[in-house]
Amino acid sequence: MLSDRFRAKNENSRKVFLVTFLPPTIWLILFLFAPVLIIVVYSFSQKVGLINIEVNWVMDNYWRAADPLYLKIFAKSFYIAGTTTFLCLVISFPVVLAITKIRQNWKLIILVLLMLPFWINLLIRTYALIAVLRTRGFLNSGFEWIAAHLGLRFEPVQFLYNDTAIIIGLVYIHLPFMILPIYAGLEGFDETLKQAAEDLGSSSMQVYRHIVFPLIRPSVFAGCMLVFIPALGSYLTPELLGGTDGQLIANVIERQFKHANDWPFGAALSMVLIYVTCGVIAVWLLVAKRKKS
Amino acid sequence: MTTFKNKRFSRRGFLAGTGMLAAGISLPSSLLKASGSSTLNFYNWDTYIGETTLSDFKSSSGIDVKMDLFSDNDELFGKLRAGNPGYDLIVPSSDFVERMIIADMLSPLDNNAIPNRVNVEPTFLEVGFDPGRRYSLPYMWGTMGIGYRKSKVDGTPDSWKWLLDSSKYRGKIALLSEAGDVLGAAFKYMGHPLNTTDPKIITQAEQLLIKQKPNIKVFAPDNGQDLLLSGEVDLAMEWNGDILQVMEEDPDISYVVPKEGSVVWEDALAIPKGAPNPKNAHKFINFLLGAEAGAAIAEFIQYATPNVAAKKLMPEEYKNNPAIFPSDTTLKSCEASIYKGEEAVRLYDEAWTRVLAA
Predict the structure, then answer these.
(1) Cβ separation of A134 and B213 shorter than 8 Å?
(2) Residues of A in contact with B21 (CB under 8 A)
(3) A91 shares its domain with A31
(4) pLDDT, tens digit, for every residue of A238-267?
(5) pLDDT tens-digit profile of A111-150?
C-alpha cells in the first residue's frame, strides 16, 4: 500500500519532469545543436560547382582561415568587442549605483526607460544613430549652434564611418545588457554587510573594493559575456557605421554565405569564432578561479 | 541521420537527410497560403512593380498573384539553391540568370505562350548570359554610374578617375560595397573588360583601390543615394534608379555614366524549376510585356523598359532622360556583368577582403 503510493508519486514526478524538460530539450536539439552540427559538417566540406557541397572531411577551410589576412580581421573584431565591453562596464557602474540609490518608484521608471529601446528594431536604432552622428546631424548642429553663440568658428566633426563610430554604436546597443545584470547583483546585495564593514572602520572605497566588488563579480562576469559575445559577432553596426576598413569577421562570414557563395569557408570562419570565444571564456573562468583560491 | 554513414553526398541529399530544418527556415510563410490553379507566386524586388499591376492582372485573367520580396540577388539565390520553396516567377539580374542556368535552377520558357515577346527590343534578345533567350525575358534595365552634387563638383565628373584615382574630392566619395561592382569599375577605368578574371589585373585593381582608400569615405551597402542627399558625400557610385529617386527630391543632384564605360544591368523574368503554376507564370510574363501594363510599371518605378510597345506610350521626359536612357555611345562602352565562374568569384572576394582590411 505504502509502496504503491510511493510508486504512484514517483510516476507522477517523472511525468512532471518529462512535461517540463522535454519540450525545451527538443527545442534545443532541433534549433541549436542540429544547426550548429550542420555548420560543423559544412566547415569540413568542399563546394563543388555552384550549389553542391561535398562532405569529404577536409581541413582546407581551416587552413584558409588561418591566413594572416583573416587572423588580422579576427584580432580587430576582438579589439572592437573588448573595447565595447570595457566601455559598457565603465559606464554601467555609476549608472547602476545611482539607480540603486534612488527612490523605489523612480527606479521602476528608470528601468523601463532602459528597456524601452529593445522595443525598437536594431536597424531603425542604427539609422537613428546615423541621423545623430552624420556631418549635418543633430550632434554637429548642436555644436555649431553653441559655437555660433560663443562666436567661434566650427568645422563639423566626422563622427561617422570610422572605428570610433562602430564602438559608439555597439556601446549604445549593448549598454542595457551590462546594466541589468549588474543592477540585479547590486539590488539583491545585503546592506548589513556594508554596514558591518563600515562599523569595523572601512572607508567607503574599501567597502566597495573588499566587500561589494567581490560579491557581485558573477553579475559583472555575466554582463561582460552578454556584451562581449554579441559585439564580437556584430555585423549590422560595422556595415552601417564603419568606414572603409570597418569590416569585422561577421561581415566576412556574411559575404561567404552570400556573394562569395562559399558556405564551407563561411562555416569554418564561424566555427573558428565559436572555438576562440569558448577559449577566451575558459581562460577567463580559470583565472577567476585561481584568484579565488 | 543515416546519411552520415555516407561519406560523400550532395547538399540536397544532406538537407533531406537532416530533416526539414534548413528547408523550414527558408520557407516563406506567405507561400503556404497561395496554392491552387488560379494563383501565382511571384518573387520580386521591393517597389519594382506598378501600383495596380497585380490587380489589373487579376481582373483580366482571374489569377491571384501573391508577391514576396527580396532585397538582393544573393537572397534570391540563397532561397532557391536548396530547392524551389514554391515560387512560379522570379526576377534575377543578368549574371544570376546565368548562374541559375548553370546550376540547373531555371525552366526553359515556352515562347508560344508569350506572344508579347515581339514587344521586346531586339538587342535584348541577343544576350551573353542567356544565349537565344531560352530561360529568361527582360523586365527592366539600367546602368551603374556616378551620382553627384552639381554645386560641389567641377563640371561633370564623367570619369571613374574622380572616384578611383584622385584625391580631389577627398572624404566626399562613397563607393558601392560589393566586390564585383567596385572591381568592375576599376577594370573599366584601367581599360580592361568588365568581367576580367585575370589574377594579375585583379591584383592591379586591388592596389588601385587600396591606394585610393584614404580618399574614400565609405563603401555604402546600396545607400549611396541617401548619403548624397544628406550631404555626407558629393560623389557616389550607384545604380541609376537609386540616384533617380533622390534627383526627384533634390534638383542639385545629377547622374552620369563615366566615359570609360560601366555596368549595364538587366533584371529578367524567369521561371524556377519546380514552379507549381508554370502556365500562370507564362500568362503573367505575357501580361508584363504588354504595352499598357509595361508602361504603367515604367511610369511608376521610372526604370528603363526594354518593352518597345510600352516605351511608345511613355511621355517625352521619360524617353529623353539621359539618367534613364544613356546615349548609344555611352551604352556601347558599357558591358553586362556575366557569371565568371567559382574560381573568379573567390579571387574577387579575397581581393575585396584585402582592400577592406588594408
Answers:
(1) no
(2) 30, 34-35, 38
(3) no
(4) 999 998 988 999 999 999 998 899 999 999
(5) 899 888 888 999 999 999 999 999 889 999 999 999 999 9
**This prediction's pTM:** 0.85
**CB distance B7–A49 less than 8 Å?**
no
Query: What's the pLDDT score for residue A12?
Result: 79
Regarding whether A78 and A138 lie in a shared domain, the answer is yes
Is residue A41 within 8 Å of A56, Cβ to Cβ?
no
Give the DSSP letter of residue B73.
Answer: H
Nearest to A252 among B8, B102, B353 (CB): B353
Neighbours of A90 (CB within 10 A): 11
In this predicted structure, what is the pLDDT of residue A4? 67
pLDDT at A280 over 60: yes
Q: How many domains does chain A have?
A: 2
Contact: A73, B217; criterion CB under 8 Å: no
- Domain residues of chain B, as ranges? 2-141+266-324, 142-264+335-357
- Residues B274-289: tens digit of each pLDDT: 999 999 999 999 999 9
Grid coordinates in use for B114? 508569350
Q: Is domain B142-264+335-357 given the CATH code 3.40.190.10 in the classification?
A: yes
| ipTM at complex level | 0.85
Interface residue ranges in chain A relative to chain B, Cβ cutoff 8 Å: 30, 34-35, 38, 41, 47-57, 69-70, 72-73, 134-136, 158, 160-161, 239-240, 243-247, 251-252, 255-262
What is the pLDDT at residue B221?
Answer: 82
